[in-house]
Fold:
Amino acid sequence: MACTQIPDLPLDLFGRDQVQKWIEQHVPLCGSIELDLRCNLRCLHCYRDGEWPSGIMDTDELKRVLDQVAEAGTIWMLFTGGEIFLRRDFFEIYEHARSLGLIVTLFTNATMVTETIADRLSEQVPYSIEVSLYGYSRETYEKVTGIEGSRDTCYRGVERLLERGLPVSLKTIVMRTNQHEVEDMARYAQSHGVPFKYSTMINPNFDGSLTPCNVRLNPEEAVAVDFALESRLEEYREYFELRKDMTSSRVFSCGAGSRTFHIDPYGNMKMCILLRDPEYSLRSMSFQQIWNEMFPPVYTQMRSDDHQCNSCNFFSLCDKCAAWSQMEKGDVAARVEYTCEAGHRRAAKLGFYDGPLDQSTRGLEPTNEVLLPIVNSGGCCS
Ligand code: SF4
Ligand code: SF4
Structure:
């Protein structure tokens, strides 16, 4: 499915043709910025857990960076962290971004959303506020976050946003610790009439440690969760129907560096939030220089001719992600057995694959052609 690190682009706001033109013109349409790495939670699955060195951008430096971003033609900007509301100057930065015409989405855990913060957001409503839930019950939520009392402050924060009619959407990362409460979270979202989405994508930590993977589901479990809701099965089916004849030899087939970028709190610019390197400092280079000169040689990389993924039709089902490959295998082009197995299992569930499923213990025999649907009843892919 689509990358969970990039908010869905609301193409209809501008018209698909216009957006397509901007993509062809290599406009940096969509960016994300980590305002701070500090967080008030200590989640089991966090890929940013660890030391938070000093030296983050101050208010003025951040504003100057946003000036460059807007000047380069960026339309959608995501503010994320860490926890964004830990920054005392959050509203100064947010309001500056809005004054530049940027359409801003906020990622937050909502635990710091006070009445004052909710009121202030109502004065200048963001495009979207995506709140991460880590469980439904207090016990589960706090087992994930490690902070007593955080479940109630989160849900209270969500309700403050909802009371003001703000554009909230809820999401969760499904892991061993909270998988039994996904339906509860979905029902909670439904009862408030707001969208809910979930992902099973858990990567190693940025520092290379595999600790976050201790709580991730194995590929079989992850795919079972993916397809637990009938609506998700249909989404996957529609998504794959459009892509089932496609193959790609590109290392970055996701838009990282060609239409999206990321800036960390120290002013380092990268092609996406999960990609550790390359990174280039906005303290010594301009945004345009990095975007126009440094990124293109990276995002146009192709895999070697004999790479297993080149001829595989399931790349749209396997969460194929160069950053994930870099974090888990140290090589942006590497095949990750975990995601590969998940991709094949999804294809099997949709009726497009009937070969061996365990991709980690056997050599991969890429399928060069999509199998005819195994199950034809119920309108499956027919
Ligand atoms: S490299 Fe991975 S995380 Fe980064 S934008 Fe692409 S798919 Fe998303
Ligand atoms: S399913 Fe496996 S072989 Fe196919 S693109 Fe994904 S990682 Fe590569």
